[in-house]
Amino acid sequence: MGVLTMRVAVLLLLGVVEGRGPCFFNRTQEHCVCHNLSQKSIGSAIQCLAASVVEFWGGELERYTAQPITDLEDAPTVLGSLIIKKIIFGNLLVPEVLLARVLRFFSYTHVEELVFKSCVFQGRGNWAGMAGQGLPILSLQFHNVTSAPLLGREEEFSSLGTWLETLQELAVTQSRVTGLPCGIGRLFKALHSLDLAGNSLGDESLLPTFCQGAFPQLQVLSLQHNELTSYPGVCQSLRLLPELQHLDLSQNKLLTDPSSSSSSCQWPQTLRIFNLSDVGLDEVLRPLPPHLEVLDLSRNHLRAVDISLSFLRKLFLSQNLLEAAPSLGNCPRLDTLHLENNSIAELPWEEVKLLGVLREVALDGNPYSCSCSGAGGLQALAATGHLGQGWPQDYRCHLPPGYQGWQVKDVPVSGLRCHSVAVIVPITVVLVLLGLAGALCLLRSRPGLLQPCWRG
Asked: pTM here?
């Protein structure tokens, strides 16, 4: 499809081909989509020349493989005049040899983002022509693609080094990737975001992928929904990423290794955001990165949480099995806490006081018992204005039966009634003690028994 984007763009602007066919241009959004372009209908792509985003879906790229592609005299001027910033190729069979020959034409454009979706890369191309060639592309994305294995192709792709060392974002998702060769990782010297979600990365493939010198500037890494199981192993594999700030390990099935000493694993000191949601946890994994500011432990099986993180600001614990809010004493900077859809029935007054100092609290979807501490505690917390957007519609009573289904805010609990136990119990105790004292005095006042309690 590169030939459709480069060579044909020049021909269209020169008026060589007429513009009719299966391309649709949204002028307001500067977005053009073409479906199943063929040699006969390629002229309709002329309307895409005014777009900033262009999509090509389907087509017959393999027919152009044998055609020679040479530098077009007007290519730099014409392609440089286009405003296209993003190109998406989808549902295509992409001959790698054709891609290797066309890619250098991107150097004349302003394209910053290149995306391949549901494509099959066929064969192996000769990338020698790209040696020393820089490209304006800063973001490269592959989603649900198939290609020849990368192992053993480090020398081939080294010809792309001038471009790849300036790339900032790379995504290879849902593409059955089992690992990246160490030598290829070392080409990405400026990459700050790497998304490898939905692949087949296992514990044994992480260490060579993130070897010494690979991805030295990486800040954001997603390993979501792979085949990782060893928490200490992941920690050991990623320890050589000196700039890592955001790590997503969600939707793996992580386990602790009893034979591995927790002190042997040291996460990068720069790590600030950690996603451990939906990884099957029954307890919090140790050790946690010491300087975390955001921790997501939602969608696990946690019944208790006891963590000590001095810099933690946001903690997400929704969809667990918690019956009470966690202790917050060891997280002095916490300002956001999410506890939606747990098993919390009541909020004791001490917890209300602790949660009330936070900037944002979310507790909706719990099976509340609308007793005094249940409804009264939530109403008091809501009065602080810090409950999340779910208040009041998503806070409902499960017990007692008379209030089942009620919104907690509608339960008629007054402050006096909520504290009635605290008032009645001491008074009752005092009355009982006075009664006992009086009875003892009466016994003492009987002749021949005890001396009176007091004398006149």
From this structure: 0.84
